[in-house]
Specification:
By secondary structure, the chain is an all-alpha fold. Helices cover 71% and strands 1% of the residues. InterPro entries: MFS_dom, MFS_sugar_transport-like, MFS_trans_sf, Sugar_transporter_CS.
Length: 437
């Protein structure tokens, strides 16, 4: 088969698809904070006027909504409680920030597989509690732990799956088992369970398949076992992989691993420290803009579920196109991919700014948002590829870790971008900051 894919690798691909599906909990605020129009009196038209919402003593009446959000239940819409909607997302992103540190360190110390099991078990419990939270305070607390588990997925489980795959299969993973597919399934789940509580509970059950795969099928990472000098366990793991694949086991000779350099070694090197600074700008800009765009996508006019489905479909198609281009063109230029993609995003932001100033609310806003989201995703791909290829092997782990940290800071700030909506030029300036890279 192409890329040497067999039963074992296909199972690893599916396991990661379920795991990245859980990571879409980072943008669950699209639905959890969705707010339809409202009115105070039956003879009024539905609108989004906060003055009406705050002044209404009898309680507002919401327009018929395709999804019942937490914002509707706890009234995180206008007035003194409006900030809670942003806090809901920020606590999730803060959890991701903490999770990348804690699960990454645990994964290096005790093993990829046990940490993957821990992250998946905690994912089930935290998401289930999130759907059952009796108060908004406990809901916010649970969202921190949901984010913590997402951090375990994007660092611990991602590293685990990457080490089970062949190097040439990693681009296949990004192309065919990716964020775009996860966005599609994410939208379908929320369509089938159109209440934030039932959707959260459904998500907890979707973590069961990857948990079963890791518990009963997938072995420990041979690369991690080799790094710890546990050669007998490494051979046993490789034999299990061959057995699952239906192949005869062949002993593989592994080269001694190069010692990873510490973060301060990179900072002291003028050549690589400059590269790292550019990578930080790239990752921060991509993270801030992509998450800010995603979290505010529910405000685009039109059908909520159709819009979100279009985002997922466009992302999935764009990933396949990128893999095809990378496969067919050996001279594929990562730097141009980043610059052209980010320039396109700047143009999309500029056009949206103009339409906002003109008070336009037609279908062009959706089309431009779709294009901008695709190019933002290409920017993410360029960030990952550049971070891997711009740094030597010994510095790669430390530099990627620092880039991930900077990206989490950008994600943490993304829910606050909405508060600058009265200054439409601000988003355009933020995106321009990353263009020189």
């Amino acid at each position: 088969m192409p890329y040497k894919i067999n039963r074992f690798y296909f199972l690893a691909f599916l396991t990661w698809q379920f795991c990245i599906l859980y990571v879409t909990q980072q943008i669950f605020g699209i639905f959890a904070n969705y707010t339809p129009k409202w009115r105070c009196n039956a003879n009024e038209t539905f609108n989004s006027d906060c003055d009406v919402f705050v002044a209404c003593d009898t309680g507002v009446e919401f327009e018929e909504s395709p999804f019942h959000s937490a914002s509707m239940d706890f009234e995180w819409i206008c007035g003194s409680q409006a900030y809670v909607a942003a806090l809901y997302n920020q606590l999730s992103f803060f959890g991701v920030l903490v999770g990348t540190f804690s699960f990454g360190a645990l994964s290096d110390a005790v093993g990829r597989r046990p940490v993957a099991v821990l992250a998946l078990c905690l994912s089930i419990l935290s998401t289930l509690f999130s759907g059952l939270a009796p108060s908004w305070q406990l809901l916010l607390l649970s969202r921190f732990f949901v984010g913590l588990c997402c951090g375990g997925h994007v660092v611990g489980i991602y590293t685990y799956i990457m080490e089970l795959l062949l190097p040439e299969q990693r681009m296949v993973l990004r192309g065919f088992f990716n964020w775009g597919n996860a966005r599609i399934i994410f939208t379908v789940v929320c369509y089938i369970f159109p209440h934030w509580r039932s959707a959260s509970i459904a998500y907890s059950f979707l973590v069961v398949p990857p948990l079963l795969a890791v518990l009963f099928v997938l072995p420990e990472s041979p690369i991690w076992l080799h790094s710890k000098g546990r050669l007998d366990a490494m051979r046993a793991s490789e034999k299990k992989m061959a057995w699952i694949a239906g192949l005869e086991y062949v002993v593989q000779e592994r080269k001694p691993q190069q010692r990873s350099q510490k973060f301060m070694d990179i900072i002291r090197n003028p050549h690589y420290s400059k590269r790292l600074l550019v990578l930080w700008i790239m990752w921060f800009t991509a993270s801030l803009c992509s998450y800010a765009t995603d979290l505010n996508s529910s405000r685009i006019s039109g059908n909520l579920f159709l819009n979100q489905m279009l985002f997922g479909v466009m992302l999935a198609i764009s990933k396949v196109l990128l893999v095809t281009l990378d496969t067919l063109r050996s001279s594929f230029n990562r730097r141009r991919l980043h610059q052209y993609a980010q320039l396109s995003v700047c143009m999309c932001f500029f056009m949206l700014t103009v339409l906002l100033l003109l008070d336009y609310k037609g279908v062009a806003i959706l089309v431009i948002n779709l294009a901008g989201t695709v190019f933002n995703e290409y920017t993410w791909d360029a960030c990952y590829l550049c971070a891997v290829e711009a740094m030597p092997t010994g510095m790669r782990a430390s530099s990627l870790g620092s880039c991930s940290l900077v990206a989490r800071v950008g994600a943490l700030l993304s829910p606050t971008v909405d508060f600058s909506k009265n200054m439409p030029i601000s988003a355009y300036i933020i995106k321009l900051n990353g263009l020189p890279s």
